[in-house]
Write a structure and sequence with these properties.
206 residues, alpha/beta, 6 helices, 13% strand
């Protein structure tokens, strides 16, 4: 609270009032017993007056406090249909993440495997050329030697959809190799996605 001239005058008045009461009580036979009580009472009453006239209470809002809404989990598209992709898609689905697409190569064997995985997690079975790429996260679960080629293929599709005005939701691209860096995903980084290497601390066998 800012100190005003009015407040300063009141403080000086309080000081003079205490001196006045002290001088009056010193000439009285009750000075020795009543002076501390009376001076304290006068001081307290004057302070109450100052506080009443110079302080104010902040307005209290009666609006109910809104509860903080939980942050929505990102949607995920899985690239690959092998052991890691199958396990990871199921684990993410069980953890409450929505799996939008399982993406695989356009071959008879890959299409069969991708349909199996997609059916388990309620996702779409697509190829790199038909993927909607509407998930927030694109997670590569393919062998190390195939990561860069898969990234190039999806980056081309990423750019092609953007050029014709189709929405692309991918913001992050991850791969699961424990031996390779995130540079394997440079094609997608150049297309505008943030990239990283994220691999589980266990092995998956066919």
């Amino acid at each position: 609270m800012l100190t005003t001239n009015r407040t300063l005058r009141r403080r000086r008045g309080l000081h003079n009032l205490r001196r006045k009461h002290a001088s009056l009580l010193s000439s009285s036979s009750l000075a020795s017993n009543a002076a501390p009580y009376y001076a304290g009472y006068a001081c307290r009453r004057h302070c109450e007056t100052i506080l009443t006239k110079t302080c104010y209470a902040a307005p209290v809002s009666r609006e109910p406090i809104a509860e903080k809404q939980p942050t929505a989990k990102p949607t995920i598209a899985i690239v690959g249909a092998g052991s890691l992709a199958t396990f990871l898609a199921g684990a993410l689905r069980d953890a409450g993440f929505k799996i939008t697409e399982i993406i695989a190569r356009d071959s008879p064997q890959s299409r069969r495997r991708v349909r199996t995985v997609a059916d388990k997690v309620g996702a779409q079975a697509v190829t790199s050329h038909s993927a909607a790429l509407d998930a927030t996260v694109l997670w590569f679960c393919v062998p190390d030697r195939e990561i860069r080629n898969a990234a190039w293929s999806l980056a081309d599709h990423f750019v092609a959809r953007a050029l014709v005005g189709q929405k692309v939701g991918v913001r992050f691209a991850l791969h699961s190799s424990g031996a390779l860096s995130s540079r394997e995903l440079d094609p997608l980084r150049k297309a505008g996605a943030a990239v990283a290497s994220v691999h589980p601390l266990m092995t998956f066998v066919a």
